[in-house]
Amino acid sequence: MTVAQRIARWRVTAGFVLTGVVLWLAQPTWRTLVVGGAMAAVGEAGRIWAAGHVEKSREVTRSGPYRFTRHPLYVGSSIIGVGIAIAAGDPRVAAIVGVYLAITITAAIRAEEAHLRDKFGGEYDAYAQRVAPPMVRSFSVTRALANREHHAVGGLILALALLAFKVQLSIR
Are 30 and 86 in contact (CB under 8 A)? Predict the structure, then answer.
């Protein structure tokens, strides 16, 4: 197993641990929470769009946001991370989130691309080089649910609710 594969495998666990640190360090205000929460919601909307198109490990998906970027789920996650950093209202949190995203998203992309090249070969290479034809497929809520995107939605809502609770505690 490569280093990228190890990091990619541990990114969710590391994310939960860092969430605790982020919540502890956070100094949110209603303003940072609204601005950051709105940005995070945009990132999650992008993830939902992608999850409603992708057939993970079954094909090289080329519909929906996959027409524009090879990694829309990671783009969405990055936007969510920036939104949470803004919502937290603390530069230390921004630094932690930035380092976490830079390391884990880069590793995940490398591991995923290696997997897709191994599994799909030239079909993935044609997609990566933007010479593969687009795929016609409608967004599917069922597909998004099968890809467990509702877990990410729940996690985002919980994180924002905990930050809001912290704002409320600081007012008293």
Answer: no
Threshold 0.90, pTM exceeds: yes
- The whole-angstrom separation of Cα 137 and Cα 157 is 29
How confident is the model over 87-137, as pLDDT tens digits? Answer: 999 999 999 999 999 999 999 999 999 999 999 999 999 999 999 998 999
DSSP 134: P
The C-alpha atoms of residue 103 and residue 105 are separated, in whole angstroms, by 6
The answer for residues whose C-beta is within 8 angstroms of residue 79's C-beta and 6 or more apart is 39, 40, 42, 43, 46
Reduce the DSSP state of residue 71 to 3 states and report it. Answer: coil
Token couple for 96: 């932690």
Dihedral sign computed on CA atoms, order 92, 43, 144, 67: negative
On the CB side of 105, CA atoms within 13 Å amount to 18
Q: How far apart are the first and last CA of the chain?
A: 51
Contact 79, 43 (CB under 8 A): yes
Distance CA 120, CA 57 (A): 9
Count other C-beta atoms under 10 Å from residue 17's C-beta. Answer: 11
